[in-house]
Fold this sequence. Notes:
By secondary structure, the chain is mainly α. The chain has helices at 3-39, 53-89, 94-105, 110-117, 121-134.
Amino acid sequence: MCDKELFERKIMDLYEYRTAVRERMRAEENLAQYIESKKSPKAAGGGGSAAGGSDLSRYMEREEELREELLQIMEETEQIKKEKLRKIAQIESEDEKDVLIKKYIYFKPIKDIAIDLEKDRSTIWRIHKKAILDYPI
Length: 137
């Protein structure tokens, strides 16, 4: 594998957490919308009362499925985060660790990282490049 491919693979490995967070957010939104639809059956296409026994039990079953799905996604997301933090912790440079954590765990843009670390953006980009090179895959 050439250096550029390895570099890109490391970045994609770090972006795995962001992808997991986005999936979790979609699951949270799906659950919230489903619960809201119970409050307003017409909004969910029900057109009438959802108070019937079988309708209510179907609703409760589906809500429970969505909650279980969300919990599973949350657990997976937390595991991915821990894995990324464990890998980042293996890097010697504290500046490199800070840049990777701020960018890939807290999703901060480079300009904000530069402010946080009191360095200019070009320095942060250099630290970022070095951090990616040092990041274990």
